[in-house]
Specification:
- The chain is α+β, with helices and mostly antiparallel strands.
- The N and C termini lie far apart (about 65 Å).
- The strands form two sheets. A six-stranded antiparallel β-sheet has the order 1-2-3-4-5-6, with helices on one face.
- The chain contains two helices and eight strands; from the N terminus they run αββββββαββ.
- GO terms for molecular function: structural constituent of chitin-based larval cuticle.
- It holds the Pfam family Chitin_bind_4.
- InterPro entries: CHIT_BIND_RR_consensus, Cuticle_Struct_Prot, Insect_cuticle.
- Keywords: Cuticle, Signal.
Length: about 160
C-alpha cells in the first residue's frame, strides 16, 4: 500500500512539473480493491501518455513468513522527450526498481576484481583449524614516580 502512495506521489510530481494549463484527462482507470485474501490491482492511463499499473498480494498467508509483495510499472515521457519506463517489485527483499534511466554503478576495477576472486578461492580457516599462537606480551612500563618535598607522589 505504501508503494502505491509512493508511485502516485511520483506521478503527481511529474504532472505538477508540467506547465499548468488544460487539465489532463484520465483516459483509463481500473481498480480492483483489496480482496479478502489481501490481493489488489489497479491501472491508470492519462491523456498525456502516463501509464501505471500495480498488483499486490500476501505471500505465505497465515504463516510465520507472511509478507506483502507488490509488482508494478509506470511509463511517461521526460520533458526532454526521453521515454521513461520503470518496473519494480517490493517484497521482503525491499524495493527493487529496474529501468534504463536509473544510474548503474561503475565496473569493478580489474585489480579489485582479482583480489575478490582470490579471497573467494582462499577462505579463512575456521577457528578450530587455525594454528594457535603464543602471545608473549611485555608488561607496559610504569611511569616514573618522584616524591616531592611534601611527600606526595607525582607521575611524570
Amino acid at each position: 500500500m505504501m508503494n502505491t502512495v509512493i508511485v502516485l506521489s511520483a506521478l503527481a510530481t511529474v504532472s505538477l512539473t508540467q506547465q499548468q494549463g488544460e487539465p489532463i484527462p484520465i483516459v483509463r482507470y481500473e481498480n480492483e480493491g483489496v480482496n479478502a485474501d489481501g490481493s489488489y490491482q489497479w491501472s491508470l492511463e492519462t491523456g498525456n501518455g502516463i501509464v501505471a499499473q500495480e498488483q499486490g498480494q500476501i505471500k505465505n498467508a497465515g504463516s510465520e513468513n507472511e509478507a506483502a509483495e507488490v509488482q508494478g510499472s509506470f511509463q511517461y515521457q521526460a520533458p526532454d522527450g526521453t521515454p521513461i519506463s520503470m518496473n519494480y517489485i517490493a517484497n521482503e527483499g525491499g524495493f527493487q526498481p529496474q529501468g534504463e534511466h536509473l544510474p548503474t554503478p561503475p565496473p569493478i576495477p580489474p585489480a579489485i576484481q582479482r583480489a575478490l576472486e582470490w579471497i573467494a578461492a582462499h577462505p579463512e580457516p575456521e577457528e578450530a583449524q587455525r594454528p594457535q599462537r603464543e602471545v608473549h606480551a611485555k608488561p607496559l612500563p610504569r611511569p616514573f614516580q618522584k616524591t616531592n618535598q611534601r611527600g606526595f607522589n607525582r607521575h611524570f
